[in-house]
Structure formats: structure tokens, C-alpha cells
Specification:
The complex is a heterodimer of chains A (about 325) and B (about 325). With about 325 residues, chain A is mainly alpha-helical. In chain A, about 70% of the residues lie in helices and about 0% in strands. The two termini of chain A are about 20 Å apart. In chain B, strands 1-2 form a two-stranded antiparallel sheet. Residues about 310-315 of chain B have low confidence and may be disordered. Classes of the chains: A mainly alpha (about 325), B mainly alpha (about 325). Chains A and B meet through α8, α14 and α16 of A and α5, α6, α12 and α14 of B.
Chain lengths: ~325, ~325
């Protein structure tokens, strides 16, 4: 769906395009099939609730990452940012809700400013966000020097909802994907935002402010990062300054798995959420069932990424290369 | 005055040294002038490790937008373990261990390039994926590795001549060599040409792919060398030994005045940037701030410096 909106000029073969669009879902189906084969008992309401437990924060962080990637940038600080949000949620948001809410809104403001800064000074987003990752981690350690704190009760209640028939993480993932899809792919400003990454010159000549677009994309990243941190702390109930560190890599991998491209504003919110679910399932349940030692879990993440990208090359990317 | 400013602005790398000097002055003002020399010696020793990977990262970044090696930390970690295991604590095997570390780094560089070429994906994702795998190899390979470096090698990394670390002098040679490679050899000129306009470079007969291959391989080798030296200096290998060099290697390149858009490298700036980073940490340590504040300030100062030094001359 991304290709049809952003690049009407490209004519991929129909089968190719279909295969490519289906690749994220196929990867997820493959992982689920592997788990079902290894451990049929996992294929139940509780099995999925347990396996996808951490998928909600990962999906939100992935969507956060997707917004910066849509603008041709990369956020290497999302992991520590999620950790910082966890710490804020487990302390201020619980003890003095207005202060916590203010701090979290401030964070989104900081992200918007970063976007403006990156655009105005033409800075490499990798360096700026790498620097910011230290800032968030430092702030998190200041706030919560030792693991602890407690998530607000309402947050835990939300994350502990048990809807009938369909496990909560699946429902949540569907909602997140829908919000991302309609927000970015179906609204007119969403098209401008993607255009700011795809063809900034054209967007500027059409009279749109690239500065505003960039700031908006970064603010959206901040907003979804905040949601991700709150969801995470709602599940873990207590926080730790390093809790989110792995999310930087997971979120980038999720976006790429979901069919996102690094250049050209070509991203897919639905694909990103599916990619996040794949990473969440492949990262630990699958490996546990395969009896792969934890040492190799990170390698497995990398290998999955490489395999999917290789599959993408095999399907063929004629016409979509830059 | 105005002309002086213009000359300064024309040499962005000077700022990195000015920044380093300010950090040092701030630190010795705080201690009342005590330990200023020792601080410089320590800063020179530590900056060496950042300079070595910084040079590699500089060549990669000069290749053009999107080119960056995110696998350096994992590379350094693995090479440190390989070096220690091959040296096995014996002075007679130092050369062998160094070669093994260089070979290990070379492999990483080659794998990086192959991923970029074969999967046609941006280097950021390729090197990131590679770093996942390397990291796991390292965790598995280096588990419980307690081998100390050979005494001769450990001493070598700590030798000082009149307060100047021997490693710093050797690195000076490396930096001078890198300068010659960059400005005088076909390889270096080609790297800059590719960074300025890859298509023009290709049409002008630059062998784009071999040059890119060589650049990633070079960066890998320098990462391997750094791993071995770090293991010697800190007396032991460690999975996390290279972690801080992800930010550091990129930051020193940018602070040193190398264009992030590629095509314009700056060698002295890498050293200035490295000294700046190390002295910044030294200063914060002498102030005795907590870990949280130290991280917070390091991040803020890096972002501020990059805002001041980087970008701006964008062709938008």
C-alpha cells in the first residue's frame, strides 16, 4: 500500500508487489507456525497472551521509530527514551500525576525541538539521537538510581485487561496498526509527512513547511515513545533505567521487517506492527522453544533481519531502488 | 578580528582543540592547578583508542550520506577477546595475537561490505545486523574469558616517554599515514570523490565498489587493532569494552569538522575531537558529579557541539 501512494510511477510486477507486501505477514506466519510445531500447547489464549506480553511496547516503539524513518532519519535514542519514560511513569506519574503528565508532554516537546534542530542545522540524526540517548539515560538514572518505583494502578489495570476470545496484545496491536495506518497513510497531512521524506524539494515547492513536517514527525516519535514506555511499565510494574535499552535495535528491525525503507519516506504502519510482533515472538519464545541459549538471541535477531532482507532482494526490488 | 574569525571558521577542526583546551582549563581550575600534566597524559592515552576507530569511521563517513559503521563496538569487543585468547598470556605470541585481532577486524569489515552489496541495504542496517551477530559470537566465545594480556604487551600499551604515551606517538604516525592516504593516494582521493558525487566519480573512472570494499575493510581492521590495544591497556578482554566507541567514533568525526554529507574528511580534527571527549569526561570526573549527571551533561554537550560545528553549510 505504501508503494501505491508514494511511488505511482513505479511499475513492479503484480506478483512481485503482492509478494513484497505479504512478506511481513509471511514472516510472522512462519514464526507462529514454527512455534506451533515446536510446542502446540502455546497456541492458546494464554499462550499468546504470555508470548506477546511484551509485544505492545515493542510495537509502539517500532511505530515511533517508523515516524523518524519516514523522514529519512533514525532515532538511536528510542531505547533509552522508553527507559526514561518508564522511570517517570513509575515515580512522578504515580506520586504527582500532574507533574508526571507535564514531564511526559515536555518530552514530546523535546522531540519536536530535536526535529526542528536536525532540519535547521542539517545535522545527522544518528549523532544527535546518539547524544540524546546519553541524556535520557542520565536523566533516568538521576530519577531512579536503583531499579524500583511502582507503576500507577490504572496503567497496570489497562495492561492487564483480558478481553474475551482474543488475547489483549492482539487487540492492542490491531488498534495500534489502525491508528498508524489511518493517521499516516489516509490523511492528507500524513501524505505531506511521508513526502517530506520521499521528496522534500517537491513538498517545499508545493508550499509546505519542511520544518513543521520534520518537527511533527519527531513529535510523533516522542508521543509513541511515551506510550511505549507507559505500556512497558504497566506490564513490568516497576522500572529500571536500563529497561528499554534493547528497544532501539528491536524498533529499527521491526520497521525494516515490516517493509519500511531507509530512504524515500517509504514506510508501512501495518507492516511495522507486524514486524514488531515477529521480532517479539522470534526474539524470545521461538528461541526458547528451539532451546537456543540466550547468548545467541541477539544473533538470531540479526539473522532474522538478514534473512528477511535477503528474501526481499530475491523477490526483486527493480524500480524501487534509489 | 573579522578576518581572524573567518580563518578560524574555515578550519573547523581548530574548534575541537579549543574545546579540548577549555575542558582541560576548567578541570585544572577546579583542582587549583594540581595534576594538570597527569591529566593531559591520561587524556592522550585514552584518546588514542578513540582516534584509531575515529580514523576508520572517518573514511567510512566520507564515502557519503548513509555510510556509517555501527558494528565497531561489537568488532572491538570480539577482537579484544580473540587477541587475548591467541596471545594466551605469553609474550612470545603477542605478534600472533595482534595479527589475529587484525584478521578478525578484517573479517568483520568484509562481512559488512558483503551485506551492503549482496542485500543492497543501507550500510546502517547492514552494519547493525552484523553487529547483532558479532556481539553474540563474542558473548559465546568470550564467556568467562579471564586471560590477562601478556605482561610485555600490557606494559607496552602503558609506556610513557617524558609524560607522552608511546601509543600516542605511534598513533601520531598512524594519523600522519592516514593523512597521506587521504590526500595523496588514489585510494583516499577516490573515497573523497565518491563522497562528493558517486555518479560523477563512477563516470570519471573511479572503481567505486572496490574502493567501498577497501574502506569498510580498513575500518574493520582499525576496529580490530583497537580491540587488541584496549585489552592490553585495560588488562583483559570484555564484551562491553567497545561500547562507548559507537558514539565516540561518530562524534569525533563530526566534531573534528569532517562533513557528515561525505566527501570532505578532516584528519587533525579527529584527534581534537577525541581529546575533547576524553577531557570532557575528565573534567566531569574531577567535579565529582554522579553517573546520571555525567551522562546527561556528556549527551547535552555533544549535541550542543555538533549543533555548533556540524551541518549549517547544507546545500538544501
Amino acid at each position: 500500500m505504501a508503494a501505491s501512494v508514494t511511488a505511482p510511477g513505479h511499475r513492479l510486477g503484480d506478483t512481485r508487489r503482492l509478494l513484497r507486501a505479504l512478506l511481513p505477514s509471511l514472516s510472522l506466519a512462519l514464526v507462529i507456525a514454527a512455534i506451533a510445531w515446536l510446542n502446540p500447547r502455546a497456541m492458546s489464549y494464554f499462550g499468546f497472551t504470555l508470548m506477546l506480553n511484551l509485544a505492545i511496547p515493542i510495537a509502539l516503539a517500532t511505530l515511533a521509530q517508523m515516524f523518524v524513518i519516514a523522514g529519512n532519519d533514525l532515532d538511536l535514542s528510542i531505547g533509552t527514551f522508553v527507559g526514561f519514560v518508564c522511570c517517570v511513569s513509575a515515580t512522578w506519574l504515580r506520586d504527582t500525576p500532574w507533574l508526571g503528565a507535564l514531564a511526559l508532554l515536555g518530552c514530546i516537546g523535546v522531540y519536536a525541538c530535536l526535529g526542528a534542530l536536525v532540519y535547521l542545522r542539517n545535522l545527522p540524526s544518528i549523532v544527535v539521537t546518539l547524544g540524546m540517548s546519553f541524556v535520557w539515560q542520565g536523566a533516568a538514572i538521576l530519577l531512579l538510581p536503583k531499579p524500583g518505583g511502582k507503576a500507577p494502578g490504572w496503567l497496570q489495570a489497562i495492561m492487564g485487561v483480558k478481553p474475551p476470545l482474543v488475547p489483549f496484545p492482539v487487540v492492542a496491536a490491531a488498534v495500534i496498526a489502525a491508528v498508524g495506518y489511518f493517521g499516516l497513510m489516509r490523511t492528507s497531512y500524513g501524505a505531506i509527512l511521508r513526502g517530506a521524506g520521499g521528496n522534500p524539494v517537491a513538498v517545499r515547492r508545493a508550499g509546505w513547511s519542511l520544518l513543521k513536517a520534520k518537527a511533527t514527525l519527531f513529535a510523533l516519535t516522542g508521543a509513541f515513545g511515551v506510550l511505549s514506555g507507559m505500556a512497558l511499565v504497566g506490564i513490568t510494574t516497576s522500572a529500571d533505567a536500563n529497561i528499554g535499552n534493547g528497544y532501539t535495535l528491536l524498533s529499527i528491525a521491526g520497521v525494516i521487517l515490516g517493509g519500511g525503507e531507509f530512504v524515500g519516506g517509504r514506510v508501512s504502519p501495518v507492516g511495522a506492527v507486524i514486524g514488531a510482533l515477529t521480532m517479539a515472538m522470534a526474539a524470545s519464545p521461538l528461541l526458547t522453544f528451539l532451546r537456543i541459549p540466550p547468548d545467541w538471541q541477539v544473533a538470531a535477531n540479526g539473522a532474522i533481519l538478514v534473512v528477511v532482507l535477503a528474501a526481499r532482494v530475491l523477490i526483486g526490488r527493480k524500480g524501487s531502488g534509489q | 578580528m573579522k578576518r581572524g574569525m573567518m580563518t578560524l571558521l574555515a578550519r573547523p577542526w581548530l574548534w575541537s582543540f579549543v574545546g579540548a583546551l577549555i575542558m582541560w582549563l576548567a578541570a585544572i581550575t577546579f583542582t587549583g592547578g594540581y595534576g594538570g600534566g597527569g591529566m593531559l597524559t591520561a587524556a592522550l592515552s585514552l584518546s588514542v583508542f578513540t582516534v584509531i576507530v575515529g580514523i576508520g569511521q572517518m573514511f567510512v563517513i566520507t564515502l557519503g550520506p548513509g555510510n556509517v559503521d555501527l558494528s565497531l563496538p561489537a568488532n572491538i569487543g570480539l577482537a579484544s577477546a580473540v587477541a587475548m585468547k591467541v596471545m594466551d598470556g605469553s609474550d612470545s605470541r603477542v605478534a600472533l595475537g595482534l595479527l589475529a585481532a587484525l584478521g578478525c577486524g578484517l573479517c568483520v569489515g568484509v562481512v559488512n561490505y558483503l551485506l551492503i552489496r549482496a542485500l543492497r541495504i543501507p550500510p546502517i542496517i547492514a552494519t547493525l545486523s552484523a553487529s547483532f551477530v558479532i556481539q553474540s559470537v563474542d558473548i559465546s566465545y568470550g564467556r568467562g574469558l579471564q586471560i590477562k594480556p601478556p605482561p610485555g604487551f600490557a606494559d607496552f600499551t602503558n609506556i610513557q616517554i617524558f609524560g607522552v604515551p608511546l601509543l600516542a606517538l605511534l598513533t601520531l604516525l598512524l594519523v600522519a599515514g592516514a593523512g597521506i592516504v587521504l590526500h595523496r593516494l588514489v585510494f583516499g582521493r577516490s573515497v573523497s570523490a565518491i563522497g562528493q558525487n558517486i555518479r560523477a566519480a563512477y563516470l570519471a573512472g573511479v572503481k567505486v565498489e572496490p574502493i567501498r570494499f577497501a574502506t569498510y575493510a580498513l575500518c574493520g581492521v582499525l576496529g580490530g587493532l583497537d580491540g587488541a590495544l584496549l585489552a592490553g591497556y585495560f588488562r583483559g578482554a570484555n564484551v562491553d569494552i567497545g561500547n562507548e566507541y559507537l558514539l565516540a567514533s561518530i562524534a569525533v568525526v563530526v566534531i573534528g569538522g569532517t562533513s557528515v554529507a561525505g566527501g570532505k574528511a578532516n584528519i587533525p580534527g579527529v584527534w581534537g575531537g577525541a581529546l575533547f571527549l576524553v577531557l570532557l569526561l575528565t573534567m566531569l570526573n574531577t567535579f565529582g558529579v554522579s553517573a546520571g549527571i555525567r551522562l546527561l551533561l556528556t549527551g547535552l554537550i555533544i549535541v550542543a557541539v555538533i549543533t555548533a560545528a556540524g551541518g549549517a553549510k547544507a546545500a538544501r
